[in-house]
């Protein structure tokens, strides 16, 4: 069965990137591997990532990324980054959280940034957001980042949603597990700063204000998971200046802005972003120069 179905032409589309953007495009061979896997060729390239071919196919077209897929991509971060760690909040059963956190730490005795990729929902009448759990479902991906050096936490949402009401409660046990392993260097955050002020236009779309920071905003309906992981990878493997830049108000000029063109316009380049994530998955390695101009390093 062709997993792409009627959307097989998706691979025939081309994504025009700015000619001034000096990035390394993935090789045609690895892109062909992506296509072969989804055409039901022997999926040897993804066996080591412990993901089904069906799950892998979510990277194509306009499909929503699943927690299994984001968890497998997060393992690429956890296996390669010296000081960043990524967890998918909806992935684990809280009874086996100790093993999940310990495996994600991958032997590190300290971390700089902790990412939670979180499935959330929003209650339309009240505009209140909730992190998914056994009772509440979710249909949107957001990111919680904790800067361990400052013990400050930030909610990063590509639709400009407010901070989920129960987010700290859902994360509390994970922080407790990390404290058991890492000691006093990590603390349970007491509050969360929202990188986008939750303001919306008459059509219900987020409208950035002077208070909004440099987390990317989507203008389509299906790229939230792609954006969430692109953000985690860019901050984890990009220049050290990326994370401080993310927290700056958009109105401030910064040399990184022109070098993060894809990052700032994810919906415009979502076809390319999905291809890049798939190539990283096939290779089992993140090459951030597929997204960030080499001039930034």
Written description of the protein model:
The chain has helices at residues 28-38, 53-56, 67-80, 97-105, 167-182, 224-237, 242-246, 261-264, 270-283; strands at 84-88, 113-123, 128-131, 140-147, 152-156, 192-194. With 297 residues, the chain is an alpha/beta fold. It has one domain (22-296): Adenoviral Proteinase, Chain A (Adenoviral Proteinase, Chain), CATH 3.40.395. Strands 1, 2, 3, 4, 5 and 6 form a six-stranded mixed sheet that branches. A hairpin with a 4-residue loop joins strand 2 and strand 3 (128-131). The longest helix has 16 residues, at 167-182. It is globular. It starts with 27 loop residues before the first helix and ends in a 14-residue tail after the last helix. The mean pLDDT is 87.
Largest sheet: 6 strands, mixed
Secondary-structure-based class equals alpha/beta
Which geometry do the CA atoms define?
globular
Indicate the proportion of strand residues: 5-15%
DSSP helix count? 9
What's the average pLDDT? Answer: 87
Q: How would you describe the oligomerization state of the chains in this entry?
A: single chain
The CATH class is identified as: Alpha Beta
Low confidence ranges: none
Distance between the termini: 43 Å
